[in-house]
From TrEMBL:
Lineage per the UniProt record: Bacteria, Bacillati, Bacillota, Bacilli, Lactobacillales
Gene name in the database record: deoC
PANTHER family cross-referenced by the UniProt entry: DEOXYRIBOSE-PHOSPHATE ALDOLASE
Protein name: Deoxyribose-phosphate aldolase
Organism: Limosilactobacillus albertensis
Active site: D94 (proton donor/acceptor), K158 (schiff-base intermediate with acetaldehyde), K187 (proton donor/acceptor)
Domain of life: Bacteria
Lyase listed as a keyword: yes
Known function: Catalyzes a reversible aldol reaction between acetaldehyde and D-glyceraldehyde 3-phosphate to generate 2-deoxy-D-ribose 5-phosphate.
Amino acid sequence: MKLTQAQLAKYMDHTMLKPEATPEMIDKTVAEARKYNTASVCINPYWVKRVHKGLAGTAINTCTVIGFPLGATSTESKVFETKQAIEDGADEVDMVINIGELKAGNDDAVVADIKAVADATHEKGKILKVIIENALLTDEEKARASKLTVKGDADFVKTSTGFSTSGAKVEDVKIMREAVGPDFKIKAAGGIHSLQEAYDMIEAGANRLGVSASVQILEEAAQQ
């Protein structure tokens, strides 16, 4: 496949989730997103106000993470965090599921957790992505988690936090796509460092890419 730099940029959530990110690093990420016109800038909740302000006047969304990176906070905490993030200017929230409940087969608990955050997100007309952390799941659990994400009324299912043992894999995106059908959206995140890797994820079924190496990949796209 071949996309223009501008087309590829619209797949990208330009990401800076490092715990050591300074204000200067956040501002640099915003400036890069503005230069390439990415889909969003994805940052930890503390930085939402700063990023939202920095993206003023653009069509670039402010994206943040909820219950991140473990997913083992209470549903009430996730809902509060979501509402606060949206109030601060977030357009998209990427929440982590309760991985332990999924692995225990407690699907109702997983769906309830997602649905509570989905309701808080959609009440304000915003977008919810659900991180299932594939590195910790069997193939059966990946498929089941993807289906539960649909059932929980989210907008995307997402592969990874980027903070576990591995990130996005083409095989996982294919499993997720088969599980959710042709229309539900998928975000691949973690470990995407080259143009070919970005293309591979899109060809496997990804609608959005969570990438910290956006500049490198987009510059590579400009030279193809």
